[in-house]
Amino acid sequence: MGEKTTSKRQQVLRRLKESISQGRAIVGGGAGVGLSAKTQEAGGIDLIILYNSGRYRMAGRGSLAGLMPYGDANAIMLEMARETLTIVKNTAVLAGICGTDPFRDMSQLLKEVKDLGFAGVQNFPTVGLIDGVFRQNLEETGMSYEKEVEMIKLAHEFDLLTTPYVFNVNEAERMTRAGADVIVAHMGLTTSGTIGAQTTLTLDDCVVRIKEILDAAVKINPEIIVLCHGGPIATPSEAKYVIERVNGIHGFFGASSLERLPVEVAMKEVTQEFKSIRLPARLAAPRVVEIEMAHLSDRQREELHKSMLEYLHGSNFTAAYNALKQDTGVEYTPDPKAKYAGLLEKKWTSVIRLQKKIMDLETRNASLQEELSIAPSKRAAMQADWVPRAPAAHVLTGHRGHITRVAFHPQYSILASASEDATVKIWDWETGEFERTLKGHQRAVHDVDFDHKGHLLVTCSSDLFIKIWDSENEWKNTKTLVGHEHSVSSVRFMPGDQFIVSASRDSTIRVFDVASTHLVRTISGHSEWVRCAVPSEDGHLLASASKDKTAKLWDPRTGECKGELRGHDNELEAVCFAPVAAYAAIRELAGLPITGSKDPGAYVATGSRDKNIKLWDVHSGQMIKNLAGHDNWVRALVFHPSGKLLLSAADDKSIRVWELSTGRCMKTIEAHSHFVATLAWGRQKISTAKSNGADAKTGELEKLVNVVASAGVDQTIKIWLP
Fold first, then answer.
1. Could you say which protein family the record assigns here (predicted)?
2. CATH code of the domain containing 428
3. Same-domain pairing of 212 and 232
4. Under a CB-based contact definition with an 8 Å cutoff, are residues 492 and 501 in contact?
5. 585-605: per-residue pLDDT in tens?
6. N or C end of the chain: smaller count of CB under 10 Å?
């Protein structure tokens, strides 16, 4: 007897396990059209999934359209099969089956799927994406997740590869007992791009949840394969982040990540490249001549025509002479003594001489402009109005996780960066050189700040700790502050450096004494995660931004809430006080008298996941202006030292420059290849005075150096210099 032939399911499982044994991550991906499947196979993908949301996604709709009553999900999948199965040659293709479909006999459907050539199935559309009362009602009326479990069990009996989505430990256990070969831990709708979700878990939250699901499944079946999917895990760097932190996970399953997002990026970039092509100047020349001709008076036009006729006649261009005379309708008899004789040649010679004079003047003007630009007064003016422009002066690399915050030393060319890789790194921003890594936190570091002298550095982390580092003592961790009950997302020195203010996911703001490390005050009032809390310049106010869609103003000495700013449609990510230098521009924008109070803390700016920036009057609580322009979450805000401009950074990978007096976006910088999470302005005074005091006579005892740093998910820090 010959050897027993292995089934398609067994062949696929063998390939997957061989890949795992060789240290290669398993990658599965959704395909909404045949070209996507063909391209994914060319890239070496392990599994291709066909389900209705893929079709909707590539039609420019969100993936959740697959859960709405816009079509027969199983019929759409079968239609996609005829397009895709004939084009994929060597990769396992899975069918996304709506297991709760009450109008299908699952046995017949699974048989049809297998006969068509599918290697396996997945439970999509899935009620696992639905929660609340609606989900409860589905469970109660026979359209429950248990129907999907039954479908997976039946598919296993048909010897089809089974790769169900699970959303929690209970579902993981049920699907594993039903015979699932691969468990896909689903973290929710994928973020990013033009139609991605905005409400999602953090990567660290995903790590915890996926680990729980993996442990539950492996406890029942140690051979099961576990993949991660969805939520904030949208790019290879984010998948890598999760895989490196969840021991035992085998890879990533993407739909939007492997189809919609790459298409959005590639098509946009190629279109922009085509649009950057400029037409040759010669194509525009005839139109310019036509416009110039239109500005001639009737008398000038008649003189031009007669001088041209005189020139053609004198040059014996008889045919051209007759043609021009006929076309213009001018009655003219050539006369060598008439004023038109030689007029065209004289005018042409004059134009040549004038053109040479213009060129000489332009050369002289350029030389004078160059001299003027290096004059001390001009240089100072240029420095005062400087804003970043591409390319960045330095690109700093070394972090192995998303960079969450950067901070400049107030005296030296030192930059500190915090990262989700649980470290803080110290850099020389002037040279772009790495100096050292500070290790001590056990989880993601979310914020970093120097005191006003630069002697101390404070950091905070998801490990619940706030740490103080001594920059004058080998950057040793000299103090650790405790008190928060969840991730600490923000930390700042208060003016005077006696106190530290922190914000946390435990919904509180806390004030600590630096010297004793004691908790001085707990400020409560937000109903959700407090993303950040920052002090005003004089320390009399705190501004906080929260997941509860509000910003609040507080008296840090009493903990009293002094005001609430409400108007954003999504979570707030950033808040900052406007410097006094910005008051005139903000009042002009608001239509208020330019003169007024110079007390710090009069105005704040907020940035939100609703893609908007808002300027607020602190005393009245009224919004002054909404600045719309970013295409994704606004993550960071910083006012220009001149007070004329506001800089913002966002998940659309850009930095934008806003003119405060008009609210107009005057510049957009394509800053990073991924989300921009942080932005900082370092304006330092560097002495240039000589010891003999000679420079003092010129008034140039020091010069102001502008520097901006930005960083984010692409794990790079960019230094922008004049």
1. Belongs to the WD repeat LIS1/nudF family.
2. 2.130.10.10
3. yes
4. yes
5. 999 998 888 777 788 999 999
6. N
- Do 250 and 305 belong together in one domain? no
Q: Which of 247, 273, 299 is where one domain is finished?
A: 273
Integer Cα distance of 648 and 668 in angstroms: 10
Judgement on whether residues 489 and 375 belong to the same structural domain of the protein: no
pLDDT tens for 80-98 read 988 889 889 899 999 999 9
Same domain, 363 and 260: no
Is there a contact between 483 and 504 (Cβ–Cβ < 8 Å)? Answer: no
How far is it, in rounded angstroms, from Cα 258 to Cα 37? 10
SS3 97: strand
Q: How far is CA 458 from CA 126, 281, 462, 489, in A?
A: 45, 58, 14, 12
Using an 8 Å Cβ cutoff, are 442 and 448 in contact?
Answer: no
Can you give 524-589 as a three-state secondary structure string? ECCCCCEEEEEECCCCCCEEEEECCCEEEEECCCCCCEEEEEECCCCCEEEEEECCHHHHHHHHHH
Alpha-carbon torsion, ordered 592, 595, 598, 604, to 10 deg: 20
Q: Report how far residue 128's alpha carbon sits from residue 170's, in angstroms, rounded to the nearest whole number.
A: 12
Interatomic CA distance for residues 80 and 162, integer angstroms: 19
Mean pLDDT lowest for which of 40-49, 57-66, 122-131, 458-467?
57-66
Q: For residues 166 and 160, what is the distance between their CA atoms, to the nearest angstrom?
A: 18
Domain range for 341 = 288-380
> Exposed/middle/buried for 11, CB within 10 Å: 0-12, 13-18, 19+?
middle
d(CA 290, CA 585): 44
Tell me if 562 is assigned to some domain: yes
* pLDDT for 428 beyond 50: yes
